[in-house]
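name: query_chain
kind: protein
chains: 1
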Amino acid sequence: MDAAFSSYYRSFAPTLVAFLIWQGARLHDAAELAQETMIEAYRSWESIEHPRSWARRVASRKYGRMIARVEALPAELAEDQVPLLSVRCDVAEWEQRQDVLRRLARLPARQRQVMAWRLDGYEPAEIADELSMTPEAVRSSLLKARRAIQALLSGEEEANYA
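structure:
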């Protein structure tokens, strides 16, 4: 069990952090929530059938509860002090992700949540199961999110030519 969980943790923890960031979490919060989720996963490892979906669902719910509390982030917490994220990435990829994050941040929370699942490769029916929504509601949220992002892109293009 320990070897299987260890392999899962090493391969999936950075992905889970990124998933939470897609939803709007700050880096520090995403790393903390991912760590808490992984602790729960370890404790329940024998009973978890689909660990990646389970972790996304649990972490997403934790993030929802966290933003409902609206606690301020202490100023002394530097985002680059998160040991869970010792992952290297190239600058172009980082800039592209920042552009996507900037646009996602302007979406309503539910649309951002659904888009995060979709960006991680889940289909609408799978997202519906994970978020206890109907597939139609998921598709509707995705459509609204895509339209909003397209409108943002159109507005940015117009501003660049003005």
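note: Helices lie at 2-22, 27-43, 51-69, 91-104, 109-119, 124-131, 135-161.
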